[in-house]
Write a structure and sequence with these properties.
The protein has six helices and 14 strands. By secondary structure, the chain is α+β, with helices and mostly antiparallel strands. Strand 2 and strand 3 form a beta hairpin. The two termini are 21 Å apart.
């Protein structure tokens, strides 16, 4: 396990993987000290959403109000806490039980997305639309959506190498924004710069939440369990 190397990779490419070989849970009993101790090398754990620092990512709900971390299936490219004015800058994902039928993590950087858009005939117009702070998101129900309502307007790709995006809970869109959002979501599915990360028990996937989006391949295995810790800069 090389913490220094992971920090270097995180700064250089916007993500890193630690192959620790450790067990972060016994069944469903989480070893909180081990999880938070390791996450603490990359920032200060946040309990803002959900009221706890360690959030289990596993299929537990099937109703439409379930957020991405509570349901099975695929998840499109997104950044965490896009619906907050100040999303946490780092995410750690601890692999406890990989899915037997998929569920791998996909990664895609903001720089690659912007470069691909510039190749498109309408790229300049699309980039302008995505750079305008006019995009809003609905806070998921489980994270206080009924109280928080919609996020303040923000840019998706402001042009500084960062990105903020999540398609499934966009809100208050104009017709033009709907068209751009649908086109953008389709583009993200086919970009060749996507990195696929296999899951092994004991892996820790560290993501720069301001520069890199993550997604999830389809799965159905109800035993799949990851542990998410969002981190503030230390």
């Amino acid at each position: 396990m090389n913490i220094h190397g992971a920090k270097h990779d995180l700064a250089r490419q916007g993500w890193a993987v630690l192959r620790t070989g450790r067990r972060f849970a016994d069944g469903d009993k989480i070893d909180s000290a081990a999880v938070l101790g390791l996450a603490g090398h990359f920032g200060v754990p946040s309990s803002r959403d959900g009221g706890r620092e360690i959030w289990p990512v596993r299929p537990s709900r099937t109703d439409p109000a379930a957020t991405l971390s509570e349901r099975a299936g695929a998840a499109g490219f997104h950044t965490d806490a896009a619906y907050r004015p100040d999303p946490e800058p780092v995410i750690c994902m601890f692999v406890v039980r990989p899915a037997a039928d998929g569920g791998r993590t996909l990664l895609l950087g903001a720089t690659a997305v912007a470069a691909e858009l510039r190749k498109h005939p309408l790229g300049a117009r699309l980039l302008d639309t995505l750079a305008t702070p006019q995009w809003r998101w609905r806070v998921p129900e489980v994270f206080g959506g009924a109280v928080a309502g919609l996020s303040p307007p923000a840019a998706v790709l402001p042009g500084d190498g960062t990105i903020r995006w999540r398609a499934d809970n966009l809100a208050g869109l104009t017709c033009e924004q709907r068209r751009v959002a649908a086109w953008f979501a389709r583009l993200l599915k086919v970009l060749p710069q996507t990195v696929t990360v296999d899951h092994r028990p004991g892996d820790v996937i560290i993501i720069d939440n301001h520069r890199t989006m993550h997604a999830r391949a389809w799965f159905r295995d109800p035993r799949r369990l990851l542990l998410r810790v969002r981190l503030w800069a230390s």
